[in-house]
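QA checklist item 7 of 12: single-chain prediction sanity check.
[x] sequence parsed
[x] length recorded as 123
[x] structure emitted
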Amino acid sequence: MDEAVKQATPSLPDASKLINLGNNRWSFKPELGISKRLGPVTVELSGAGTFYTDNDEFLRDHTFSQNPIYQVRGHLIYAFSNGVWVALDTTYFAGGSTSVSVWSIHLGIALIPVLALLGSLHK
């Protein structure tokens, strides 16, 4: 089977097993970003949403659902004249709560801010 087809095909659950590694669902993640250079500084901002289909065969006869996960990322990059750069990155996630049939699990992502400092040294 072609490798691209294998990756795009969702795993099918094995009804004889309680735990299956496949999700038996699809997810879609559209993203949109913008970047603007202002002298030695570059500002980048992007947004994304991950949307999930339901798994209507979860534990044989239950439905597993997950709300979308929304993501906003920002990057502030400073490039020095000698090729060295430093960046301050942040990511914010919201949403993602899950439910099975009639009860809600709420194990999804609520609010997770992420902050990182990166750099590069060129000789």
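[x] summary fact logged: The radius of gyration is 20 Å.
[ ] second reviewer sign-off
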